[in-house]
Design brief:
With 328 residues, the chain is of the alpha+beta class. It contains ten helices and 16 strands. It has a seven-stranded mixed β-sheet, with helices on both faces. The protein has a five-stranded antiparallel β-sheet with strand order 15-14-13-12-16, with no helix packed on it. Strands 1-2 form a two-stranded antiparallel sheet. Bound molecules: biotin.
Length: 328
């Protein structure tokens, strides 16, 4: 049995946001009432808020959308033959899970979790996510070449996410180098998605990448308060309602597309698309280097390896390989 199987089956019933009695859940699922009571306690221990009211039963604070392996695999269509898709109920980090298991998992394994409890962000940060509020997934890609040929990979994943935004009707999104997806919400650029790529293997012969994607789906105010930067979600910036299963399948399709092209052409064929999608066009930005040093200037171009070319205030162009861009 999958970890938290009864808990997540119970959650699927509660996901409509209405009251359901323990007895009714037990009958529907074919488990004992004690198992359902334990399942509810397991969910509470995972910080899932559940109201219990005598004679009425259990209820979530609001309706939520839970991921379904069946729906995602169906939406993948033919690609489901190529991708090894796994849906977990709970995991600390989908990246960590895939990094630990990469030797035993086939190429193009995709792991998605309904709840991620200790997500990793870029530059040692924590990626905040909560049940029904975030899409958290990782893709294992085994390259037939070494890590020295992966320059620009992280920007290419940003392009895949930007294409997904267009496909679901979010047209005011842009890319912050290297791969944050931002959305213009009331004249503020807010982060909607981030990417963390972790590499294993060799510089020259072969390597694997675990590509982690976190996308805010329906951020609650409580969750938003935990995030230390401007953030938004699909539901806040969309006028129509979205099915997270569809979005997961679109992310997989677009990432597989870009990775297949990247294997042939490397970063070169993506440069123009990235530049066209970039945030802060004609705007001065601040760049904080890994060392902490801050410089300001305009993003004028990308080098062929995906590094940023910044025209500084002193008129010189600096090539930047790692660090953080922010608006000023
Ligand atoms: C960032 O800092 O912008 C990168 C965020 C990446 C978060 C995702 S969520 C799924 C995957 N698993 C993790 O632990 N992190 C990535």
């Amino acid at each position: 049995m999958k970890q938290y199987e009864i808990a997540f089956k119970t959650l699927a019933i509660l996901s409509d946001g209405l009251f359901h009695s323990g007895e009714m859940i037990a009958n529907e699922l074919g488990f004992s009432r004690v198992s359902i009571w334990k399942a509810i306690n397991d969910l509470k221990k995972l910080n899932v808020e559940i109201f219990s009211v005598r004679k009425k039963g259990y209820r979530l604070p609001k309706a939520i959308k839970i991921l379904s392996e069946k729906k995602i695999v169906e939406a993948l269509g033919e690609l489901s033959q190529f991708v090894n898709f796994e849906l977990l109920n709970v995991i600390d980090s989908t990246n960590k899970y895939l990094l630990n298991q990469s030797k035993n998992k086939p190429h193009a394994t995709v792991v998605c979790s309904n709840l991620q409890t200790n997500g990793k962000g870029r530059r040692g940060r924590v990626w905040q996510s909560a049940l029904g509020e975030s899409i958290t997934m990782s893709i294992l890609w085994k390259f037939n070449f070494g890590a020295s040929q992966l320059s620009g990979l992280s920007l290419v994943i940003g392009i895949a996410l930007q294409r997904v935004m267009q496909k679901i009707g979010i047209y005011n999104s842009s890319l912050k180098w290297p791969n944050d997806v931002l959305v213009d919400a009331n004249d503020d650029l807010k982060k909607i998605a981030g990417v963390l790529i972790e590499l294993q293997g060799d510089m020259e012969s072969r390597c694997s990448a675990v590509i982690g994607v976190g996308l805010n789906f329906d951020l609650s105010t409580k969750q938003q308060k935990k995030i230390d930067q401007l953030a938004t979600s699909i539901t806040s910036v969309s006028s129509k309602s979205h099915d997270p299963n569809e979005i997961v399948s679109l992310i997989i399709k677009e990432i597989v597309n870009v990775l297949s092209d990247f294997e042939k052409t490397h970063f070169e064929s993506f440069k123009t698309e990235w530049l066209d999608s970039r945030a802060f066009k004609d705007q001065k930005v601040q760049f904080q280097k890994g060392s902490g040093e801050k410089i300001t200037g305009n993003i004028i171009d990308l080098d062929d390896d995906g590094s940023l070319l910044l025209l500084k205030d002193d008129g010189k162009i600096e090539k930047l390989l790692s660090g953080e861009v922010s608006s000023i």
